[in-house]
Amino acid sequence: MVIFELIVYPGLLFAAVIGLLSSWFERRVSALVQWRVGPPHLQPAYDLIKLAGKETLVPRTANRTLFLLAPLLGFVGAVLASLILWKANLGRSFLGDLIVLLYLLILPALAVILGGLASGNPVAILGASRELKLVLAYEVSLVLAVIVAILKADSILLNRLGNTITIGSLSGVIAFLVALLAIQAKLGFAPFDIAEAETEIMAGPYLEYSGPPLAIYKLTQAMMLFLLPLFLMTVFLGGIDFRGLGWLWGILKYLGVLLLIILIKNTNPRLRIDQAIRFFWRWGLGLALLAVVLALIGDRVGLKWL
Amino acid sequence: MGSNGSKRLKLDWRAWGVAKSPWVYHLATGTCNNCDIELLDCLTPRYDVERFGIKLVGSPRHADVLMVTGMMNRKCLSRFIEVCSQVPKPYIIVALGACGSNKGIFHDSYNTVGPVERVVREVMKEDTIVVNVPGCPPKPEAIILGVVKGLKLLQERSKR
Hints:
Chain A has helices at residues 2-7, 12-33, 43-52, 64-89, 97-104, 107-118, 122-153, 158-163, 170-187, 198-201, 212-237, 246-266, 273-301. Chain A is mostly helical and 306 residues long. The mean pLDDT of chain B is 85.
């Protein structure tokens, strides 16, 4: 039963299929924004099949073991995160699952950093260093924004967070905006695609990867494109309710969040790394702190809308 | 692609995958930038090659199609060989423009080591598929046709 859950339904296969479809949605909407037609809906799957059939090259300067194992680390993190998040939406939660989830969602970024550093390529190391700085920048804002939701739901269980619509209050709206930008950075989308930055440092940490390890990275990215909007939705917008037609409303909410992320991606230029760090530590952290204070005041005085 | 031939012989999934999502790495070896601009035209809304899964990548290690422009001058020769060794197999090379396919107006120049195909066959001694797309610059339609022909050839060769 545990194996089935891990590999098929809320785990690997389920997250991979939805993630690849979300990834197609992202490419298609981006194409429509640029007045193009865009790829067919199986394109992300074709990409994976192709990468699985290519040769794996390991640079001479690389640390071979770490270079090949790093993609798996992020992949495992994404699979476990999908398991916990989907089960919480189904109503099965355990004490501290939010904290476990927050840690698991960092693993893909860590895997990218480790892989980039292990490849021994100066440009990839530069990309890994940027990714590391970006993680240090957005993670505090994201956790503070989640704390607002915890205060509103009066619980740390993901299940309860999913039943509360945090965004119905002023502090909730502010916290949602901060978390949305943090998730944009977590996904590595513009304006925070600084680590990959195709036009300046080629593909950053992915530069030396080819064949199956690159396929695992791409699959992890696709799964994160499913997990992070779902996470945002569960924490702030109320998760998916499976009674009656609730699941339809849930899908609409998910697509809405995804669309918002894609439109931000397509309408913003890339920031420099110092600008991104300043942005998150000044505006992200400041607004998130403000939201926490507002939520605490609202809780003490008894004003629900604050 | 390859729907006619696939009935006779079994399909090689590696070559099929490359044909379904060919990622292009663009290498300039002494070019006037005319072909490079024409190559970028393929990505614009008018031609939109992302419909077929084609996209430009920044690293030769992600590439399936090595798009070579320019007349291959002496300084670029070692770089070209280095880049070719970085591209994971299976891949194809497309030599773009008059210069890439037969040296063009640099035919009698002292500084060129010959068209791409000659370098691959005689200097590197490899039998990688090389497609020549002549024209100064070639039209985007011709570039797309060149890639399609190369991918077909790759699929046919992998069946043998």
